[in-house]
Amino acid sequence: PKGVINDWRKFKLESEDSLSSSKKEILRQMSSPHRSFSKEDSRERFCRKMSIQEYELIQDEQEDESCLQKYRRRCMQDMHQRLSFGPKYGYVCELQSGEQFLEAIEKEHKTTTVIVHIYEDGIKGCDALNNSLTCLAAEYATVKFCKIKASDTGAGDRFSNEVLPTLLVYKGGELLSNFISISEQFNEEFFAVDVESFLNEYGLLPERELPELGNGNTDEQDVE
């Protein structure tokens, strides 16, 4: 697309201090499609043969793979930042009471997904699920992961040991999914990747967080 090509040329112009002044001028002209031309200038601009400088500049663009990768990473990061809304977490919040449980759901940003693990010590699968959610919380910082003991919810009779571990998923104060005895969905030993795949099957997790750009040495495949 022309817009992407023009943005790329501007990015290269800003990042390449070594370009000669003549090449910089050509690049400015090529990245400004809305510039006004007279009929004579337009006819000459589109009918003349490509100059050697323009040809070399285009060849430089095609060969400069490293600069292109940096540009693509910057575009991906900018797009991700524009699409990211709400607060960031990155950890599992321990809830101590039924009041905190309700506040975590009802007072949260309407675009934030809240995943609550209801557990008890000594129940099979609860420890493994807590460990898995700790890993996922670091990967999905825009999701609010919480855990609370069934005995602390104030509704222990509704969360007996037979239904634990239970996973509740909320968004905008509404219950999206209710998974009781969720460990039965996995093998005897399960890990974060298994829980992640399960939640993704139901569309309950957003896209993964993009890594920081850093010094630009990240492999291209990490952002695709």
From TrEMBL:
Residues 18-42 are annotated as: Disordered. It holds the Pfam family Phosducin. It is found in: Cell projection, Cilium, Photoreceptor outer segment; Cytoplasm, Cytosol; Nucleus; Photoreceptor inner segment. SUPFAM superfamilies: Thioredoxin-like (SSF52833). Its main location: other. GO terms for cellular component: cytosol; nucleus; photoreceptor inner segment; photoreceptor outer segment. Residues 1-216 form the Phosducin domain. Keywords: Cell projection, Cilium, Cytoplasm, Nucleus, Phosphoprotein, Sensory transduction, Vision. GO terms for biological process: regulation of G protein-coupled receptor signaling pathway; visual perception. InterPro entries: Phosducin, Phosducin-like_reg, Phosducin_N_dom_sf, Phosducin_thioredoxin-like_dom, Thioredoxin-like_sf. Belongs to the phosducin family. This is Phosducin. It comes from Nyctibius grandis. The lineage of its organism: Eukaryota, Metazoa, Chordata, Craniata, Vertebrata.
